[in-house]
Every structure is written in structure tokens, then in C-alpha cells.
Write a structure and sequence with these properties.
The protein has about 475 residues and is mainly α. The protein is built from 19 helices and no strands. It binds aspartic acid.
Length: about 475
């Protein structure tokens, strides 16, 4: 896959174009900077650094304010609006992002060309994602990150207390009776369901023998991918404001909890990394050994160039050329398998992101005093698995999908809510979490390519 020219991103290149959109956004903004001083400095500094600066300054400022309750109150009242604005902007884009990225994702897999390799690949992706979320939930129940933090939000407003409906109702509610109503209300599961059904139908239509219908479907597909790209362009713009939002929201956390708040942040990161390692060993190691009778150690050694590239770039799409080279040259996956499994994997197979979503949802539940019950965890299982499918393989995409998972379990991230404050804590350390999850995403794609090739008896085993 190649980059499209700036003005024309063809649909098949969507993920690269998303990354492109984000980069262009930043360089475009930097070019248009005529003002000097703070604004000029602000846009010149790399976004990640700015978010980190926001996090550190917010923590220091919050600790200082913690010693002066009256000053803290004035700070919260006068700056809270910036935190609220950031949260509102993010929420604004959640529904269109899910809708268009899931439709585009589902519609880009051609049913006519799926065949046995395609079906095996998709089955492998699905099963490993479910295992990943199960491991994440089990770990989060054991470690309980965020427990007793008692985050109360800047306006001392808690998210609505979670009253989960029975399981049968949760499952039934996935099917919307009126998709427009679900979209208007932001009901996540019905939106996902509708988007997938729509996307799959569109994929069949694009493959249709009726030339007129296929051409119309192609045009609709292009429109949907253009909408998805536009939404990611908007995300790029909103993220320019993230350092300010993170600064305000983190200052509030530290004003309330003091330096004690660092511990839970490190603890949630540790829980997630333990999840990554366990999934690597149990999920991929288990599949490689039990299904393919291949050495897990050899796999890890062979995969490390691509895994490390993913860790550093935080982009599955950006790593794709390395992933393909490593899979073919070091692991012996034939081009016939790698050319389907790896590009599709970079778009829809995100086990690391699934683990991240599940652990973060549990953390936010614990931190805001609303631990997720069994049915809510089951909902997380469904939404995290599907949200991972809809996550674009670009840096930081998972953090938007987290909003949708939280919404599905009644932990809404609304202005002034405890959820918003806990969410800001996650954004503050997102780069660290993104490195690990992208590394897992890419490693999972390679394991899939190897396992499918072996089962098709086309793997070059002389390389093992
Ligand atoms: N950065 C991840 C990837 O490219 C996606 C995410 O943010 O979860 O795979």
C-alpha cells in the first residue's frame, strides 16, 4: 500500500491517509502560525511532548493547590471550563467515528475474495481478541487498579450509578429497533451492530454481478471512507487542545489526592503490561504450540524487528512494511497469505488495544467508586472486542474508542463527572500504553499469518 497524494486518498489507503491527515494537520498548523510567543511555541512542540508537559505541570500545580483548599476551589471553578470543553469536543466525534470507521472496516473485506484463508484468518482474529479481553478482565479483577481512589470529579458530580440490566436484555438491546434513535442517543452497542450489518451488506453489494449496483456501492463506500477520514482529521484538531484539557483535569486530580495519584497511574500501566505479556505467552504461545506445533521462543525472536518498530512508532499501519518483510523473510509466510492477513490484521486485529480498553474501563470503574459488575464486564467483552476492530492503526486511536466502551457500561465521560477526570489520567499516560498495545497488535498479526500458513501447509518450515 502506498500513500495517496495529499488531495486524493483512495479508500483502500484509508489508514495511511488517517495518519497522513493527522500529520498534515500538525504541519499545516505549524505553517500557518504567524503569531509569535506562547502560541508559536505551543504549536511548534510535538503533540506528545505537549501532553506530557500538561500532565506534569497539572500534577505539580495540583499538588501545590492541594495545600490551599480555597485556592484549589477558585482554580477548579475558573479553569474547569477548559477541561469540560475538551471532554465535549471528544464526545462530539465518538458516534460518527464509530459509525464510519466500522462501516468502512467491514465493507473493505470483499466476501467474494475471502475464501478459506480469509475465513481462518478472521476466526483466528476473533478468538484471540476474545481471549485478550478475558485475560485483561481477569487481571483487572485481581489487581483492581484504581480501587479506593475515590475520584469525585471537578464539580463533585459522579457519573450515573451503574444499574446493569439482565444479560438477556443486554444481548437483545444490541439489535436496535430504530438505528436513527440509537445514533441520536449515542447507544453504543446498537450503533456497532447497525454499522457492521451495513458494512457487510455494502461489501456484498460491491461484489455484486450487477454492475450498476456495484458501482453505486463503490461510490457509497468512498463516501463513508471520506467521512471516516474527515472525522480523524477532526480528531487531529481536537488533540491540539488535549494538553490544556489534560493539564486542567490532572491538576484537579492532584489537588484532591496529592502525589498519591501517581501510584494508581503506574499501577494501571503495570496491570496492562502484565496483560500484554500473558496474552503473548498464553494466547499466541498456546496457539503456536498447540495448533501449529511451532516454537514460541523462535517466533518471538523472529518477530522482534517488527514488534520493536511497532513499539516505537505506535502505528500498526506504519509498521506494515516491516511486518510483511519479517513474516515473509524470517518466518517463511508465503506472499499469498501475508498479502491478505497482514493488511487486514493491521486494520481489524488489535488484541493490545482490546486489552487496553478492558483494563481502562475497569480502572475507571474502580477509580470512580463504580466497579463494573459481571454483566457490565460481559458488555465490555463485546464492546472492547468490536471497538478494537474499529480502531484505526494509527497512534492514539484507541483513546477515542475508550469513550465508546465507557458509554456502553454506563460510565459516561461527561463534563464535570468523575469519569472525565479518570479518563484524563489515562490520556496523560496514553503514549506509554500505546507503545505496548501497538506492539501486541502487530505481534498478533504475525502470529496469525504464521498459524494460518501452517494450517494451509504453505509455511516454509526450513526457517523454523
Ligand atoms: N496505535 C494503535 C495501533 O496502531 C491503535 C491504538 O491506538 O490502539 O495499532
Amino acid at each position: 500500500m502506498r500513500h495517496g497524494s495529499p488531495g486524493r486518498c483512495v479508500p483502500q489507503q484509508q489508514p495511511q491517509c488517517l495518519a497522513y491527515a493527522l500529520n498534515v494537520q500538525e504541519s499545516h498548523m505549524s505553517r500557518n502560525r504567524e503569531s509569535s510567543g506562547f502560541l508559536s511555541w505551543y504549536f511548534r512542540v510535538n503533540l506528545l511532548k505537549r501532553i506530557l508537559i500538561g500532565l506534569v505541570l497539572g500534577a505539580v500545580c495540583g499538588c501545590v493547590l492541594g495545600a490551599a483548599p480555597e485556592a484549589a476551589r477558585v482554580f477548579i471553578v475558573s479553569t474547569g471550563i477548559f477541561g469540560d470543553l475538551f471532554i465535549r469536543l471528544l464526545k462530539m466525534i465518538v458516534v460518527p467515528v464509530i459509525l464510519f470507521s466500522l462501516i468502512t472496516g467491514a465493507a473493505s473485506i470483499s466476501p467474494g475474495r475471502l475464501g478459506r484463508v480469509g475465513l481462518k484468518t478472521l476466526a483466528y482474529y476473533f478468538v484471540t481478541s476474545v481471549i485478550a479481553v478475558a485475560i485483561a478482565l481477569a487481571l483487572a479483577n485481581i489487581f483492581q487498579p484504581g480501587l479506593n481512589m475515590g475520584i469525585i470529579g471537578d464539580a463533585a458530580v459522579k457519573g450515573t450509578s451503574a444499574k446493569a440490566p439482565p444479560l438477556s436484555q443486554i444481548l437483545l438491546d444490541i439489535v436496535p429497533t430504530n438505528p436513527a434513535e440509537s445514533l441520536a442517543r449515542g447507544d453504543v452497542l446498537p450503533i456497532i451492530f447497525f454499522a457492521l450489518v451495513f458494512g457487510i451488506a455494502l461489501a456484498f453489494l460491491r461484489d455484486s454481478k450487477d454492475g450498476k449496483a456495484a458501482a453505486a456501492a463503490d461510490r457509497l463506500f468512498e463516501l463513508c471512507s471520506a467521512c471516516a477520514e474527515t472525522m480523524y482529521k477532526v480528531v487531529g484538531g481536537i488533540m491540539q487542545f488535549a494538553p490544556v484539557g489534560v493539564f486542567v483535569l490532572i491538576a484537579i486530580v492532584f489537588a484532591q489526592h496529592g502525589p498519591k495519584a501517581v501510584g494508581p497511574l503506574l499501577y494501571v500501566a503495570m496491570t496492562m503490561y502484565v496483560g500484554f505479556v500473558l496474552h503473548l505467552v498464553i494466547g499466541y504461545g498456546g496457539f503456536l504450540r498447540l495448533v501449529s506445533n511451532l516454537s514460541f521462543i523462535k517466533f518471538v525472536k523472529g518477530a522482534n524487528a517488527a514488534s520493536l518498530t511497532a513499539f516505537v512508532t505506535r502505528s500498526s499501519n506504519g509498521t506494515l512494511p516491516v511486518t510483511m518483510r519479517v513474516s515473509e523473510e524470517i518466518m517463511g509466510v508465503p506472499r499469498s497469505v501475508s498479502s491478505f492477513t497482514l493488511p487486514v490484521g493491521a486494520t481489524v486485529n488489535m488484541d493490545g488495544t482490546a486489552i487496553y480498553l478492558a483494563v481502562c474501563a475497569m480502572f475507571i470503574g474502580f477509580a470512580t467508586g463504580q466497579p463494573l459488575n459481571f454483566n457490565q464486564q460481559l458488555t465490555v467483552m463485546i464492546t472492547a472486542t468490536l471497538a478494537a476492530v474499529g480502531t484505526a492503526g494509527v497512534p492514539g486511536a484507541g483513546v477515542i474508542m475508550l469513550l465508546m466502551v465507557l458509554e456502553s457500561v454506563d460510565l459516561p465521560v461527561t463534563e464535570g463527572s468523575a469519569g472525565a477526570v479518570a479518563y484524563a489520567m489515562i490520556i496523560g499516560i496514553d503514549a506509554l500504553l500505546d507503545m505496548g498495545r501497538t506492539c501486541m497488535n502487530v505481534t498478533g498479526d504475525m502470529a496469525g499469518a504464521v498459524i494460518v500458513s501452517k494450517s494451509e501447509r504453505v509455511l516454509d518450515e526450513s526457517k523454523w
